[in-house]
Amino acid sequence: MNSWTARVRHNLRRRLRDMPELSAVATALEVHPQTLRRRLSAEGTTFKDIKNQVRRDTALHFLGKQGLSIEEIAHRAGFSESSAFIRAFKGWTGVTPYTYRKGL
């Protein structure tokens, strides 16, 4: 896990339910938030992009599992409101989580 992107992704996955902000992740990685921002930028990404990717990947993973409600998946993906999750999911995939799940 050499890249800063991989380190941030790993840190976010471990703490997904409380979805830390950039400053908390920077502290965990023992760098100043601005330094982390610059290092991610040098790798061609942003903290927000990584956070969205981790949330999307988590949502897609859990939508493939039976028995979990959309509300539970939203929570596991780091969203406090299922409506915000549904909006974000539609932005990522073009369909709602319900429609996506039906197509699996």
Explain this structure.
The protein is built from seven helices and no strands. By secondary structure, it is mostly helical. The chain has a single domain, classed as Orthogonal Bundle (Arc Repressor Mutant, subunit A), CATH 1.10.10.60. The longest helix has 17 residues. The protein is elongated. The termini are far apart. The model has no long low-confidence stretch (mean pLDDT 94).
Question: What is the compact description of this entry?
Answer:
The protein is mostly helical and 104 residues long. It is built from 7 helices and no strands.
What key attributes describe this structure?
single chain; 104 residues; mainly alpha; Arc Repressor Mutant, subunit A; 7 helices; 67% helix; elongated
Task: Tell me, briefly, the overall form.
Answer: elongated
CATH architecture: Orthogonal Bundle
Q: What structural class do helix, strand and pairing data support? A: mainly alpha
Count of β-strands = 0
Strand content: under 5%
> Would you identify the CATH H-level superfamily?
Homeodomain-like
Uncertain residue segments? none
How many helices?
Answer: 7
Mind telling me the C-alpha Rg?
15 Å
CATH class wording = Mainly Alpha
Approximate helicity band: 55-70%
How many domains make up the 3D coordinates?
A: 1
CATH fold naming? Arc Repressor Mutant, subunit A
Order of helices and strands: HHHHHHH
Q: What's the N-to-C terminus distance?
A: 32 Å
Main sheet properties: none
Mean pLDDT: 94
